[in-house]
Amino acid sequence: MIQRIYIDNFRTLINFEWKPGKLALLLGDNGSGKSSVVDVLWGIRAMLADQAEIRHCFPGSTRARWEKRFDLAIELEVQIEQRNYTYKLAVEHSQAEPQKSRVRRETLLLGNTCLMDFDGGELQLYRDDGTAGPIVTSDWTRSGLGGIAPNRSNQHLTAFKRWVCDDVWLIRPDPRAMSSRTDDDNEWLTPNLSNFASWLPRWMAQDFSGAMQATQALQQCLNGFQALQVSRTAPKLEALFLVADGGTYAVEFTDLSEGQRQLCGLYVMRHAVLQPNRLVIFDEPDNYVALREIQPWLAEVVDFSLSTHGPQVWFVSHHPELLTQLAPSHGTRFFRDRGPTRIQPFTGTEGLTASETVARGWSGE
């Protein structure tokens, strides 16, 4: 899990430091910096998993507009299987050519032991026993860590990289973008769940137990729902429903309401994505669904997150139910006053629920 994140000079985040817990609710007005924190983590994942160029992950246009500096600094402290890693990234933007950005320095440490040091285009590797490996010249428009292949001598480095690439999940569901097509083979789920239909059959085949649990939860949530299945006549996802006489009928997935598609996505995510040692970020998961529909899903996710082997879970939300349940114990308020983002633990108002406190604009006063 992430124990500390530091960001300097990304949008409204200037000398920003946050030490999130295992369960966290990010709350605050639009433009207060909540999504920027998430975007930084997703940018790092793109660097390491996809070897994306720095200019695509952190373009010069993302620096704070009131800052004259052209550098970006990011630090992550992460605990993985009782080992403490520190990852640092310093990016240098070009003042003359705003679309050009490069890695000035990138380091990864396990405790006090350096695992890699990418400085000025030269990549110094270290073995797990602390001895120095080769120095190689690398493309500093991309992450040095992203290009390192796993081998027997760098298993600690590989464990960190694997965690970022495989165990950091961002879920920003948009049922309007969700397709019915199942003929695209997708191993990785897009954050907006647009490829949900083509990703789902692979997951169901790999995790039959989880698929059954998600199906049973949806049967309790959606009236008459029986299952999600691939059509026998076309490469499309269908939802199977019961009728009063005991028969069934199938509906193409995109013919479901936006709320029904959202719930299908959320309950599948509960059983497919929420796994031990992961960080799962839900950005506005409550859109399109009613209060009584989000409550049981939210209770399941929160209970699992707070269990001994549960994942780290962050919510970004304005929903009254999430505010009321999570803000008092797990809420971090993001706010700005004509300057950079600041944060503080949520403080309520006596006699009011957390959602009422936020609605009346008294949060933090």
Please tell me about this protein's structure.
The chain has nine helices and 17 strands. With 365 residues, the protein is an alpha+beta fold. The chain has a domain at 1-22 and 32-169: 3-Layer(aba) Sandwich (Rossmann fold). The protein has an eight-stranded antiparallel beta sheet with strand order 2-1-4-5-6-7-8-9. A six-stranded mixed beta sheet has the order 10-14-15-3-16-17, sandwiched between helices. A three-stranded antiparallel beta sheet has the order 11-12-13. It is globular, with a radius of gyration of 22 Å. The model has no long low-confidence stretch (mean pLDDT 93).
Short description:
The chain has 365 residues and is of the alpha+beta class. It contains nine helices and 17 strands.
Keywords:
365 residues; alpha+beta; Rossmann fold; eight-stranded antiparallel β-sheet; six-stranded mixed β-sheet; 17 strands
